[in-house]
Write a structure and sequence with these properties.
Blueprint lengths: L7 E6 L2 E6 L7 H4 L16 E3 H8 L3 H8 L7 E5 L1 H13 L5 E9 L2 H10 L5 E8 L5 E7 L2 H4 L2 E7 L13 H4 L3 E5 L5 H5 L1 H10 L3 E5 L4 H6 L12 H4 L3 E5 H8 L4 H11 L3 E6 L2 E7 L7 E5 L3 H8 L10 H19 L7 H14 L15 H16 L14
Parallel strand pairs: 1-5, 1-9, 2-7, 3-8, 5-6, 9-10, 10-11, 11-12
Antiparallel strand pairs: 2-4, 7-8, 12-13, 13-14
Helix pairs in contact: 4-15, 4-17, 12-13, 15-16, 16-17
Length: 409
């Protein structure tokens, strides 16, 4: 039976200003000087995140000096809206704009110039920010160092996060209006500590209202710093897993959350803990996924990355980097989930098709700087991603039957 109303999406978690420095040579002396010497010691690690105060303690120098040395004294290549929650929501809203879904973000931003810039950027997207409150103090910021030549040209980034106003956001800031939405995304709450520590309670409250819960993770530097030899908690307890309809991680996060040595063992861990469906991204390598049949149809397997994206990158098209690829992946999956719920009951939605939209959404993020793409006109991004989606359908047609990309009304 088709639902009688539009599907609404709300998200909470990480939203901040990304200050991107590119290119940075991860093999250069300036970067290597601040690289980690041991797990959780506060030093930089390619592909991972550290908190600003931890890096300062590790280096014995203020962050401004560290950034100046690594960047060679150059200013940021660009400043853009970042954060796994807001970037995913913007992508989902852009892909769904023609279908009438309502997408909202619930969070806190500082009353500074960065906060005003963040608001002005989101205002150019289809996301509702009427629940995005302004608090006294600085806005969250991440310094993103990008080496496009890393991983044999696939690129990699390293992140330094200044929590600022994100320290103030807590579970009490999520009102009944948040829980009234159909799909609830908890994106990278590890960068919003009070929200992350309450994650088990939040997803339990969502499931009590029969909402769909999507949890996407981030490198949990707090837990790694506290005990680098134990598995990371997801919120205050493993009950978070039992109330999670879809968990999206990268491979490293999956291994650290599960305390296992390989991805197959991690999948088994998440199944035992009650996760309904799971996706792990692995950079340029195939993603891994499973579903137990409660939300998506029962399935399990791997899917390769987009060949069309790879060909365009090798041809030198675009001037982007890999910043925001994972965040846009999540947004593509959420958009596909919302579209599926418009047409089908729970348990009948196709997870590989959702993964396909995630894969090409993440790939499209390689063609511009930063995580957030601002459209010149409504439907622009949907058309571009749709073309990549259809190319991807052809690419995997011998192994998977991916659903056609919905036509633009």
């Amino acid at each position: 039976m088709q639902p009688s109303r539009a599907i609404t999406i709300a998200g909470a978690g990480c939203s901040l200003l990304d200050r991107l420095y590119s290119p940075v040579d991860f093999a250069g002396a300036a970067f290597l000087r601040y690289c980690s010497k041991g797990k959780g010691d506060g030093g930089l690690v390619p592909g991972k995140l550290v908190f600003a105060e931890e890096l300062e303690a590790f280096a014995g120098r203020p962050l401004a000096e560290i950034v100046r040395e690594i960047s060679g004294g150059a200013g940021p290549t660009s400043s853009n809206l970042g954060g796994p929650a807001i970037v995913a929501l913007i992508n989902a809203a852009q892909l769904l704009r023609s279908e009438g879904e309502a997408v909202s973000y619930h969070g806190a931003v500082g009353d500074d110039e960065s906060g005003r810039l963040i608001r002005s950027i989101i205002a150019r997207s289809p996301v509702d920010i009427s629940h995005y409150r302004t608090v006294e103090g600085a806005s969250p910021c991440t310094y993103v160092f990008s080496d496009p030549g890393y991983h044999d040209g696939h690129g990699e980034r390293t992140f330094v996060n200044d929590l600022a106003a994100a320290r103030m956001m807590g579970p009490e800031d999520l009102s009944a209006e948040f829980f009234a939405n159909d799909i609830l995304l908890f994106g990278a709450t590890g960068l919003v500590p009070r929200l992350h520590d309450a994650l088990a309670d939040l997803v339990r409250a969502a499931k009590a209202r029969n909402r769909i819960t999507v949890v996407s993770t981030v490198y949990d530097f707090r837990s790694e710093r506290a005990n680098p030899h134990r598995r990371w908690p997801l919120g205050a307890s493993d009950e978070t897993y039992r109330h999670t309809d879809l968990l999206v991680t990268d491979q490293e996060e999956a291994l650290r959350l599960s305390g296992t040595a390989d991805l197959e063992a991690a999948c088994s861990f998440f199944k035992r803990r009650g996760v309904s469906s799971f996706i792990a991204t692995r950079g340029p390598d195939p993603i891994r996924f499973f579903s137990d049949g409660r939300l998506f149809r029962r399935c399990e397997g791997e899917m390769e990355v987009s060949a069309a994206v790879g060909e365009r990158l090798r041809s030198g098209e675009g001037s982007g980097d890999t910043t925001g690829c994972g965040d846009n992946f999540v947004g593509g999956v959420v958009a596909s989930l919302a579209g599926g719920l418009m047409r089908r009951e729970r348990g009948e939605i196709d997870l590989p098709s959702a993964c396909a939209l995630g894969i090409v959404s993440g790939g499209f993020a390689c063609f511009y700087l930063g995580g957030t793409y601002l459209e010149r006109e409504a439907g622009e991004k949907r058309r571009a991603v749709g073309a990549l989606y259809e190319a991807y359908r052809s690419q995997v047609s011998g192994a998977l039957a991916i659903e056609p990309f919905p036509e633009i009304p």
